[in-house]
Design goal:
Layout (H helix, E strand, L loop, with lengths): L19 H6 L8 H5 L5 H9 L2 E3 L14 H17 L10 E4 L2 E4 L7 H20 L1 H22 L12 H4 L6 H26 L1 H18 L5 H6 L10 H15 L3 H5 L4 H9 L4 H17 L20 H15 L8 H17 L3 H49 L14 H17 L5 H21 L5 E2 L9 H5 L5 H9 L6 E3 L1 E4 L2 E8 L14 E4 L7 H4 L4 E4 L7 H9 L3 E3 L4 H4 L5 E5 L4 E4 L2
Parallel strand pairs: 7-8, 8-9, 9-10
Antiparallel strand pairs: 1-3, 1-4, 2-3, 5-12, 6-10, 7-11, 11-12
């Protein structure tokens, strides 16, 4: 490896003008670098440990500065992911993924297991435990995982957050309840919401670590037997499998075709907004319009509980909260159907291609190796749907419900003057909200002014200023000295962090007009680039453009139907952008590091999804 390195965590300073004490209150103390938390008295052991680790910014999921309440997601998944790796399934070469918030941005690392004796000891546990899940994968997924994940989300939905009444209802007395339901359940339901969120994230990683481990095992076997095999050939061997993560987009396509079949397409296209469409069609006496409108309403739950982003930020628009998002996608699809264009995806073609590629490589193996190939490929194909499907239950459906419940609490706190408006609740972290609710209940019980009414508005005003300054800060892609080897399955397959990628990061200044990344989806195309830095800019994308972005979301499926190719700054072979691109048959290069900063709107570029290369042609 190169002797070059990135700055150490203790070398990164807060931007000028930020009050460090206010900044420290925003986050859990253990998530901050030692020198930020302790200052010049930082324990040497902690500083040295942080310097020893290699950190990279998790812009794949946490592309924005972390709002105090939004940090509940990574703080939870750090524990869940790491425990499955280190303590439950005992992944032989990998322990957990530690976190540090550096100037408000999430940086993560990996704790490898390097001692061969320890790896062998862990291997015995892993084979027994992981083997049980692999052997019973579909049964566990269908009979345990899915119903339990759905149960958690619906339990979240059932939680009620009601303002405190002037007096408790007399049924509390005559029903001999023995406590105040209003006071108790307001606080209890908040804690239940937090813990249900944590339970959902335990479900998230119950099978995901094993999914990536299985794919990585197949990937490493193929690389060992065929050192020159293109990465996307390996990825294509498990492609072409239906997953429910694409269901919202598939439902819009179905609704578009149904509109044309029922003869109501022009009527739907005539509406400027979803609100106008719903108002008009809800009163319509036309049976075909009624039939179509009933179908529209039937797919909202749960398929419109879908974020336009990655799912980790409160400010990402959700379809159910802004029906114009799916409605505008729908109108695009209706126009395509009217022009006689097919709305079918590349799934069938992918399945044929997948089977042909697998057969060709299998023929080149010895009889003994074919048995290993068959076993590894079958496991990889079995686990693959889960690698994407879990996102719908957690980041999309689950987080949409979670955020809507938080907003209910925000409205209560705003009504009592703790915060100016409901959205300000996201500048508080979850345990501060717990304390604020206790403050509210205490002031209600005693009949006195709540202290939070005088504390929180000023505190949140300071935090808003801090976050605004941090948004202007551009974090480095990584911190510390690069490692000799990267072994953690998530790090390689999802984030795309490998030795080669780190070297690219260190040398990107000299990249010039050629940008390298992962060859995520095959094909070579040339076209005009459109650079999309946020969900709000998706309207810029036109038919035939090449989408260049920091990252994509599975919810961008309808956009993939428009573009020639996709280029992203982050991600590996199993990142969402890579998987979605393959399923939609769109060439893609991911994990480029900074393509969205180098490439400009309108530039002509060439995307080579075979080699993982993007060229700026002008």
């Amino acid at each position: 490896m190169s002797e070059k390195r990135f700055p150490y965590p203790d070398e990164v300073k807060l931007p000028e003008g930020i009050d460090i004490e206010t900044y420290k209150r925003m986050y859990a103390y253990y998530r901050l670098p030692a020198t930020v938390l302790f200052g010049k008295d930082a324990p040497k052991e902690l500083v040295e440990w942080e310097r020893k680790m290699f950190w990279y910014q998790d812009s794949l999921h946490h592309y924005d500065v972390m709002y105090p309440l939004d940090d509940i997601h990574p703080a939870t998944w750090e524990i869940a992911l790491s425990t499955y790796n280190s303590r439950i399934f005992v992944v032989p070469p990998a322990n957990g993924i530690p976190h540090r918030l550096v100037n408000g941005y999430l940086f993560i690392s990996f704790v490898p297991v390097l001692d061969e004796k320890e790896i062998q000891k862990r291997l015995e546990h892993f084979q027994k435990r992981a083997g049980y899940y692999y052997q019973n994968w579909n049964d566990i997924y269908e009979k345990n995982w899915k119903p339990e994940a759905e149960k958690i989300v619906k339990e979240m939905e059932s939680l009620e957050f009601r303002d405190l009444p002037e007096f408790e209802d007399e049924s509390v007395v005559f029903g001999r309840k023995g406590y105040s339901p209003s006071a108790y359940h307001l606080v209890d339901n908040w804690l239940r919401l937090v813990m249900l969120h944590q339970r959902l994230w335990w479900k998230h990683f119950e099978m995901l670590n094993l999914g990536y481990a299985a794919y990585l095992l197949f990937y490493q076997f193929m690389k060992q037997k065929f050192p020159d095999i293109p990465d996307q050939h390996i990825a294509l061997m498990v492609a072409g499998i239906d997953v429910i993560l694409f269901k919202p987009d598939m439902e819009l396509r179905r609704l578009a075709k149904l509109a044309v079949e029922l003869g109501v397409a022009d009527r739907i296209l005539s509406f400027a907004t979803a609100e106008q469409m719903e108002a008009e069609l809800s009163r319509s006496k036309n049976p075909n319009e009624q039939k179509w409108f009933n179908e529209w309403n039937s797919v909202k739950y749960p398929w419109f509980y879908y974020t336009t982003g990655i799912g980790f930020y409160h400010h990402e628009p959700r379809w159910i909260d802004d029906l114009n998002i799916p409605f505008n996608f729908l109108k695009d699809y209706i126009s395509k159907v009217k022009r006689g264009e097919s709305l079918e995806t590349a799934t069938e073609r992918l399945r044929k291609q997948r089977d042909e590629i697998a057969a060709r490589y299998r023929e080149l193996l010895s009889e003994e190796d074919r048995k290993v190939f068959d076993q590894y490929l079958q496991i990889a194909k079995t686990v693959f749907p889960y690698v994407e499907e879990h996102n719908f239950y957690v980041e999309h459906w689950g987080h949409t419900v979670f955020y809507n419940k938080i907003k209910e609490v925000g409205r209560i706190l705003a009504k009592h003057g703790f915060i100016e408006k409901a959205e300000d609740i996201f500048y508080m972290n979850w345990w501060e909200i717990y304390l604020a609710l206790l403050d509210l209940v205490a002031s209600w019980a005693v009949v006195m002014p709540p202290v939070g009414k005088y504390y929180w508005p000023k505190e949140i005003a300071r935090r808003k200023e801090i976050l605004a300054k941090l948004k202007e800060y551009k974090p480095p892609p990584a911190l510390g000295r690069p490692p000799e080897v990267v072994t953690e399955p998530f790090t390689v397959m999802l984030w795309g962090v490998t030795r080669e990628r780190i070297e690219d990061w260190l040398g990107t200044a000299a990249a010039g007009k050629v940008i390298k990344g992962f060859p995520a989806s095959p094909g070579v195309v040339e076209g005009r680039a459109v650079v999309v830095k946020s969900v709000e800019e998706l309207g810029k994308v036109k038919e035939g453009d090449i989408l260049v972005c920091p990252n994509t979301s599975p919810a961008w499926g309808p956009v993939f139907a428009k573009v020639k190719a996709v280029v992203s700054d982050i991600g590996g072979l199993m990142a969402h952008a890579a998987i979605v691109a393959r399923e939609y048959g769109v060439p893609a290069v991911v994990g480029t590091g900074n393509a969205s900063r180098i490439i400009k709107d309108g530039q002509k570029i060439r995307v080579d999804g075979f080699k993982g290369v993007v060229e700026i042609l002008e």
